[in-house]
From TrEMBL:
This is Mobile element protein. Residues 166-275 form the Probable transposase IS891/IS1136/IS1341 domain. The lineage of its organism: Bacteria, Bacillati, Bacillota, Bacilli, Lactobacillales. GO terms for molecular function: DNA binding; metal ion binding. Residues 281-347 form the Cas12f1-like TNB domain. The keyword DNA-binding applies. It comes from Lentilactobacillus farraginis DSM 18382 = JCM 14108. It comes from the Bacteria. Residues 1-47 form the Transposase putative helix-turn-helix domain. Keywords: DNA recombination, DNA-binding, Metal-binding, Transposition, Zinc. The keyword DNA-binding applies. One of its GO terms (biological process) is transposition. Transmembrane segments: none annotated.
């Protein structure tokens, strides 16, 4: 049995009271960040030689701060510690020339969030119990089932949606030992092919290109539609400056546009992810590595050099073959080979040799 940490993101559907509460908590984190930052700046201004206030000192300051500003007690206390931790990190990065000076956070920025480290529990199929917030409606909690939630971040984005990102510690059971071995060759026409001749995934450059063009066209069209809509609202807004209705409509248009943009960004990301997953041997290998690790399987990576040239039956090196040649016959032993399967068998042999 192995313990692994998985990242899971769920949509949150807070009710009206919970929305107010969440914004209070976003604000509390921002308040602590800005307060600590202002204090550190002032301290430095007063005496440039003074010692930097570290995470520990900032945590110590939280107590009197909570007394002075009781609304801070509405927050999950661990989230305020996370703020201090992040601010101390930002300063460390500054001192080590890895980042700029920490900046004040604005309530107007589209993205708001806070991170806590207390326990969240799954209440039902679509319900979580969060510290200080209580029971809240979510998207499906199914894959959280047996996990221990170690850290959570609640966020709000420009499309007016709420999310929770969770770090879940979960136990993975080793799969039964089968004593079976398989060779895998990462190919160009197929993502992977094994030494038994099974092919996995397809990589069709032509298809991917067509998809990309289709999405680009859709994206441009939608962007145009959104821009026209925006211009119209802006125009109305100019003509009827005082009309509250128009302001609301404009807000709505702005949100719709942001939603569109987020959707398109996601679609593009998805498409790219697919293209990369199909094409990227590196990603495939990384996934193989951690999955084998999770399930107690042994992964041996070997050099694929010459594996498509050498005959897996007699070991004769048949020389280089252009990629277009998918099958060949060994001139020594006359075995007829599928190029990729032959390579996968050679890879299996190399792996077995490497492990003794
Ligand atoms: Zn041969």
């Amino acid at each position: 049995m192995t313990t692994v940490v998985k990242g899971i993101k769920l949509r949150l559907y807070p009710n009206k009271a919970q929305i107010d509460q969440l914004w209070q908590l976003f604000g509390n984190d921002r308040f602590v960040w800005n307060h600590m930052l202002a204090m550190a700046n002032q301290r430095y201004e007063n005496n440039p030689a003074s010692r930097f206030v570290g995470e520990y000192d900032m945590n110590y300051l939280l107590k009197p701060l909570k007394k002075e500003y009781p609304f801070l007690k509405l927050s999950d206390a661990t989230s305020l510690l996370v703020v201090n931790h992040n601010l101390a990190l930002a300063y460390q990065n500054l001192f080590q020339h890895r980042g700029g000076h920490p900046r004040f956070k604005s309530r107007r920025s589209a993205k708001q969030s806070y991170t806590g480290q207390s326990i969240c529990t799954v209440e039902a199929k679509r319900r979580l119990k969060l510290p200080k917030i209580g029971s809240i409606r979510t998207s499906k909690t199914g894959h959280l089932a047996n996990g221990k939630i170690k850290r959570y971040t609640i966020s709000h984005d420009a499309t007016d949606r709420y999310y929770i990102s969770l770090q879940v510690e979960t136990e993975v059971h080793d799969l039964p030992k089968t004593n079976q071995k398989i060779g895998l060759d990462l190919g160009v026409s197929d993502l992977a092919i094994d030494s038994n001749g099974v092919k996995y995934g397809t990589f069709n450059a032509q298809w991917l290109k067509k998809q990309a063009q289709r999405w680009q066209a859709k994206f441009s069209r939608r962007r145009h539609q959104a821009t026209v809509a925006m211009r119209q609202w802006n125009h109305h807004h100019k003509l009827l400056k005082m009309a509250l209705n128009d302001y609301q409509n404009w807000q709505r248009a702005k949100m719709t546009k942001a939603r569109y943009q987020a959707k398109i960004a996601n679609q593009r990301k998805d498409y790219l992810a697919k293209a990369i997953a199909n094409a990227s041997w590196y990603q495939f290998r990384t996934m193989m590595e951690y999955k084998c690790d999770w399930y107690g399987k042994q992964l041996v990576v070997v050099s694929a050099r010459n594996t498509s040239r050498i005959c897996s039956v007699c070991g004769h090196n048949g020389g280089a073959k252009p990629l277009a040649i998918r099958e060949w016959t060994c001139s020594e032993c006359q075995t007829h080979h599928d190029r990729d399967i032959n390579a996968a068998v050679n890879i299996l042999k190399r792996g077995l040799k490497a492990t003794g």
